Amino acid sequence: xQEKKLKFSTKDxxxxxxxxxxxxxxxxAEHNISRYGNRSLFIKSIAMLALYIIPFVLMMTGVVTAxxxxxxxxxxxxxxxxxxxxxxxxxxNHGTFSENPRINRWVSKSIxxxxxxxxxxxxxxxxxxxxxxxxxxxxxxxxxxxxxRFSPHRPLYGIHRFQQWYAWFFYGLMTxxxxxxxxxxxxxxxxxxxxxxxxKESFPRLLTDLIIAKIIYFAVLIVLPIILLPVAWYWxxxxxxxxxxxxxxxxxxxxxxxxxVPSSAYPLADEQGNLENSWAIRQLMTxxxxxxxxxxxxxxxxxxxxxxxHHLFPNISHVHYPQLAPIVQxxxxxxxxxxxxxxxxxxxxxxxxxxLRQLGRGSVLQQDSVTGIEGEPAMA
Length: 380
Hints:
Blueprint: H1 14-31, H2 39-60, H3 67-93, H4 101-108, H5 118-131, H6 163-171, H7 174-192, H8 203-228, H9 233-259, H10 279-286, E1 288-290, H11 295-300, H12 307-312, H13 321-334, E2 340-342, H14 345-361, E3 366-367, E4 374-375
Parallel strand pairs: 1-2
Antiparallel strand pairs: 3-4
C-alpha cells in the first residue's frame, strides 16, 4: 500500500531511456508494424479461451462424465485460465491487445474468468507494480501474506527459514484468493486511501459491480456443475480448487521468477521520498528475463519471460518483445547498466528458490536509503 510519494531521479543517465525509446520507434517504423497485438496474438487468444471453455462445455453437456476425465478437464481449465491471464488479459489491461480501446476494454474483462476484478488489478499492477517495482510500501507484489517474505525490508520470522519449500504451495492459492476475499479487501483498502481505481465510478458502484461479478462467477463455476455433473457436490468444490491451484501456481512462478531473484534490487527512498535512480534504470535493477529465445515459453506466458522489455515498454504488446530484447540489451551495455538474464526457466526457478532461501534467513541485507548504507534485517 502507498505510504509516501516517491520521486525518481531525473539526472541518472537520462540519455539511456531517450535513446532506447528512439531506437524502438525506429524499429517499428522500419518494419512498418504496429506496437499493438497482431494475428499471432489473436490466434493465441482463441487457443487459450478454447482451452478454458471447451472442457467446461464438454462437462456441462454430458460429453465427459467419467471421474478421472472430469478431473483432467478442470486441470486443462486451470492451464487455460493462466494462459488467458498472461496472454489476453495482461495485454488488454495495458491497452496493447488492440489499437481499438473498445476491444481492449472488453478483452480486459477476461480477468473475470480468473475470478479477478479489472479495476483492482489495473491499479495494483499497472500503477503500483510497474510504477514502483520492488519498492516496499508501494509494490503489493512483494508484500504477500506474512508467512512469505519477498523483500529484505519486511519483518523476518522463524517460519521464513522454510519458505523456499512451502512458498510454491501458496502460489497455487493466488487466484482463489482473488475469487474469494482479496478483491473485497483491496477495493475497501483503496477506498480508504482515496485512490479508488474505478476512475469516475463511485465506491458503491464498484462494490456493487464486484458483488454481482462474484455471484455470477460462483453460480457458473460451482452451482451449475453441482446441478449438472454426476458427482457429489464436494467433488465440484475440489475440482474448482484444483483448477485455481493449477492457474495460480503457473502465474505465481512466472511472475516471481522475474522479480524475486538474487539479481533483484529492493530500493528505498530517503526521508524526502527521493530515489537514487531514474525510473527506467530501476526497472533494469529490479527485473530479470528468463528463457530468452524459447518460443514455446514466450508464447504461453504472454512474453512475460521478457519482463525487462515489458517493464520498460508496457505500452507495447508482448508479441514484439523477442525482437526488442536485443535493442534493450545493446542500450544497457552501451551505458554500462545491468541487464539480468536467466538462461532457462529451470535456472529462473533455481534462482528464485535461492532468493527465497536467502530472504528467509535474513542474508539479503537491507538498504536504508539512497545513500546505500546497509543494515541487518529486522527480526520479529
